[in-house]
Amino acid sequence: MSMKVYLTSEFEDRTKRLSLDSGNTWTIGRSTENTLICEDHAISRRHGVVQQTQPGKYFFIDLGSSNGSSINGRRVTVPIQLRDGDCVVCGGTKITFHHPGGATQVPRPQPQVETEGATMVMYARRMITVLVVDIRDFTPLTRQLDEGILAQTIGTWFRQAGLILRQYHASGDKYIGDAVMAVWTHAVGKPSGIEIFSALRALAEIETVTRTLHDKFPLPAPLRIGAGINTGLSVMSNTGPQENPDFSPLGDAVNAAFRLETSTKNSGFDVSLGCATMESLRESDAEIARYFEKKSVQLKGYENSIDAWFTSFERLRSFLQENDPERTRS
Q1: Which of 261, 274, 275, 280 is nearest to 197 (CA)?
Q2: Which of 47, 222, 264, 293 is deepest in the core (most CB within 10 A)?
Q3: Rg of the chain's alpha carbons, rounded to an integer?
């Protein structure tokens, strides 16, 4: 006999119970259009959603709420699979997921489920900043280096880049051949200048690590990188197989970041920033004109040219030193 799956919500002295025995999507928020209506002013009108992707497998997704959500004390930035007893906090409301007989905090093998028809797709629209970093002239390098040295070099680069990105609170990172893509997920409508500074500081440190790999490995020359940074709305979607979904940002914000990185290759610069990224950076009252040059560029796959801001790593380091908001406040 299957066990009942349900949510309980607690706010002040009021408790509610919501059964998850019909349908596959249950929304949470202040609006009366939600499945679980919360009388909590710290919760957004459409705060989050619980979605069943396949029998017995439930995920919680924050829908870009103003005050964010947490599960068992950890902030939610991507869809998270729920397990029996998980505590989801939205605003001042505590929501507990009950799945007797289901997955607990200790992962258990999941049975493979064959489904017919459409795949269950889960998504959440979020404002993100995407950083794409690519090693320059990587193909010629592969022809010059011993395979073992090449593997050690790239492995070290990936590991050190990952440590830097976690230090600067990137919510996700991926490694694609000779490139790194990092994502910062923003809790509100658009990022603050301080959040963009975090991405820029991470990039500057990755460039330093890249350049100094020449001191550790017998490379023909110091490695160089180029980078593109873009901010915009993205869909966080499960792009992997249903039994092991991989939640990745999709859409124009991501594509443009890759294209912006490509635009630096023949520009004489190292870094390119999209318009929305620069708008957030301007709001920090940082001095822009001395360090970034505005150019109109034609990105591959885009019908019209766009404005982008270019800089070198030397200028970027000077910009961070002179305008770092953390240093200014101290």
Answers
A1: 280
A2: 47
A3: 23
**Number of Cβ atoms within 10 Å of the Cβ of 149:** 13
Nearest to 126 by CA among 232, 277, 10, 212: 232
> Could you tell me the pLDDT band of residue 144, with boundaries at 50, 70 and 90?
confident
Q: Confirm if 265 and 302 have CB atoms less than 8 A apart.
A: no
SS (H, E, C) the chain: CCCCCEEEEEECCEEEEEECCCCCEEEEECCCCCCEECCCCCCCCCCEEEEEEECCEEEEEECCCCCCEEECCEECCCCEECCCCCEEEECCEEEEEECCCCCCCCCCCCCCCCCCCCCCCCEEEEEEEEEEEEECCHHHHHHHCCHHHHHHHHHHHHHHHHHHHHHCCCCEEEEECCEEEEEEEECCCCCCHHHHHHHHHHHHHHHHHHHHHHHCCCCCCCCCEEEEEEEEEEEEEECCCCCCCCEEEECHHHHHHHHHHHHCCCCCCCEEECHHHHHHHHCCCCCCCCCCEEEEECCCCCCCCEEEEEECHHHHHHHHHHHCHHHHHC
Contact 235, 125 (CB under 8 A): yes
pLDDT at site 65 = 78
The 10s digit of each residue's pLDDT in 20-40 is: 988 888 999 998 888 999 999
Cβ atoms of 275 and 308 closer than 8 Å: yes
pTM, full prediction: 0.66
Average pLDDT over residues 131-149: 89
In degrees and rounded to multiples of 5, residue 166 shows phi and psi of -70, -35
- pLDDT tens track for 67-105: 888 999 888 877 788 999 999 999 999 999 999 876 554
